């Protein structure tokens, strides 16, 4: 399975669809027995499972903010890169909510990577407008080894204004972007 499709990632459908609930390191699978085991776990706990290809590479997050009176021109804030600690490859539940030291954030250097900056901002604005976004939303992307940008999701109600010692990615963006 890995040779044909690459690594697969599992998410809980229905009740486990938010905040990486139920998602552990073991949700990245590369063989059929592991896939079947994880799907059974998610179906049993949450009533369904979403299986998608895992994109190896860099991960970015972009916060988009509605501009009052301009629904087709949202404000797109500074893209930030998720920097994973040793042994970490993706944001699972424990990493996001218990083991904060395994994850860090760095502002994308637009001067060093102008094309990537433009592409992340453009795709984020398009996703927000396409979903008729209001208020704010956070877009997540992976960039593979060939530089291909892959849209993962838009979270239209992402967590924001967490305490300083437990900030989420949207809080980091608000700290780094001069608005």
TrEMBL record:
Presence of keyword Signal: yes
UniProt entry tagged with the keyword Signal: yes
Top-level taxon of the source organism: Eukaryota
InterPro entries cross-referenced by the UniProt entry: Dala_Dala_lig_C (IPR011095)
Alphabetized SUPFAM superfamilies for the sequence: Glutathione synthetase ATP-binding domain-like
D-alanine--D-alanine ligase C-terminal domain sequence ranges: 19-160
Gene Ontology terms for molecular function: D-alanine-D-alanine ligase activity
Keywords attached to this entry: Signal
Signal peptide feature range: 1-24
Protein name in the entry: D-alanine--D-alanine ligase C-terminal domain-containing protein
Organism for this UniProt entry: Haematococcus lacustris (Green alga)
């Amino acid at each position: 399975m890995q040779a044909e499709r690459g690594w697969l990632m599992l998410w809980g459908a229905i009740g486990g669809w938010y905040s990486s609930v139920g998602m552990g390191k073991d949700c990245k699978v590369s063989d059929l027995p592991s896939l079947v085991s994880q799907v059974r776990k998610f179906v049993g706990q949450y009533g369904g499972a979403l299986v998608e290809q895992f994109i190896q590479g860099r991960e970015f997050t972009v916060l988009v903010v509605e501009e009052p009176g301009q629904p087709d021109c949202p404000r797109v804030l500074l893209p930030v890169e998720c920097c994973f600690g040793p042994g970490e490859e993706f944001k699972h539940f424990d990493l996001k909510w218990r083991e904060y030291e395994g994850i860090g954030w760095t502002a994308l250097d637009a001067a060093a990577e102008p094309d990537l900056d433009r592409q992340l901002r453009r795709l984020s604005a398009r996703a927000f407008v396409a979903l008729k976004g209001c208020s704010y939303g956070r877009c997540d992307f992976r960039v593979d080894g060939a530089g291909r940008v892959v849209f993962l999701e838009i979270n239209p109600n992402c967590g924001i204004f967490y305490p300083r010692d437990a900030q989420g990615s949207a809080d980091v963006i608000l700290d780094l972007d001069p608005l």
